[in-house]
Amino acid sequence: MGRPPSFRDILGYFKDKASITKATLLSKPDSSSPHLAVLRATTHDPATPPEDKHLDRLLSLGHGSRLTAAACIEALMDRLHTTRNSSVALKCLISIHHVISNGSFILQDQLSVYPSSGGRNYLNLSNFRDESNPVAWQLSLWVRWYARVLEQMLYASRVLGTFLSQTAGGATGDETLEALSNGDLVKEIDALVGVVEEIGKVPEYAYFQENRLAGEVVRLVGDESILIQKEILGRVKETRERLGCLSFGDSVELVCVLKRLEDCKQRVLFLCSVEEKRKLVGGDVLLSLVREMKEKIGMVGEIRGEGRAVLKGRGRGSESARLFERVVRTGDSVCFPSARIETRVLSRLG
């Protein structure tokens, strides 16, 4: 950051050296040491993010035994929860983010079950404070925000039943989405929008330009937001296919979720680079689809007594609703979760 090192920085440097030396001496020759890998990836240096080689070494522990992977996650969590240094805490969170995004299945699995209680306050950093100097105080805001983003990502992964990094090509396939019930589809959109909302609550934006550590956090979160918005886009497109059979309750919940997304989307786009915005297929595709969906859902009326919903825009039902009515006339009251499945079944019925 262009400032001379403080006494605290020098003290942190020697603490790192002492801890790494001790961990090295206690490690057996030619054996993996989760504690040592974590220490090297989460030093006290306030100006630089973890080095790639140290992150790679930490992630490599997920390709061994489950016991080694469990020890790695435990060491990482212990480091996070015992430090009062904002730089160390941010580097621990960056390491956790790399486990979520790039870690092996066994490493991600150990993260998902630690602690066993889980919950929304998964990382338990809502009260984190580093009051040692103004820079550390500012970074404390980033620690609390980044922890909330990762917590929401972990929660969304539990709702989806998989880590986002494991979805095919960065977007869940059509067949997987078609198999979801309407309620589960809306729940997944809600969980993913929750991540976008947390991302949009980023602290003072200009500050990261003066700190490489905060800048690395913004880069990682920006990349993640691209993936998450693609996942949301795929699910919103799927709900568009189902408008004729969404229940009144699901329709209301979906409108609320889409409104939340619309409210925070511009803030998230502001964080993304020009290149990242291009990855969003024009940048405003999702917002345009959200507005379209809100307008259409706003015309959905509950037809009481028949137990189904149709679109009432300008006196005509939607294509999904008209197809549904054709099924009802055959005496079959089943409402298919996706209009694409419905169309295929109807074609077979002739």
UniProtKB/TrEMBL annotation:
GO terms for cellular component: clathrin-coated pit; clathrin-coated vesicle; Golgi apparatus. Gene3D superfamilies: 1.25.40.90. Residues 26-164 form the ENTH domain. It is found in: Cytoplasmic vesicle, Clathrin-coated vesicle; Golgi apparatus; Membrane, Clathrin-coated pit. GO terms for molecular function: 1-phosphatidylinositol binding; clathrin heavy chain binding; phosphatidylinositol-4,5-bisphosphate binding; SNARE binding. Transmembrane segments: none annotated. Keywords: Coated pit, Cytoplasmic vesicle, Endocytosis, Golgi apparatus, Membrane. CDD domains: ANTH_N_AP180_plant. It comes from the Eukaryota. SMART domains: ENTH. PROSITE patterns: ENTH. One of its GO terms (biological process) is clathrin coat assembly. This is ENTH domain-containing protein. It comes from Aristolochia fimbriata (White veined hardy Dutchman's pipe vine).
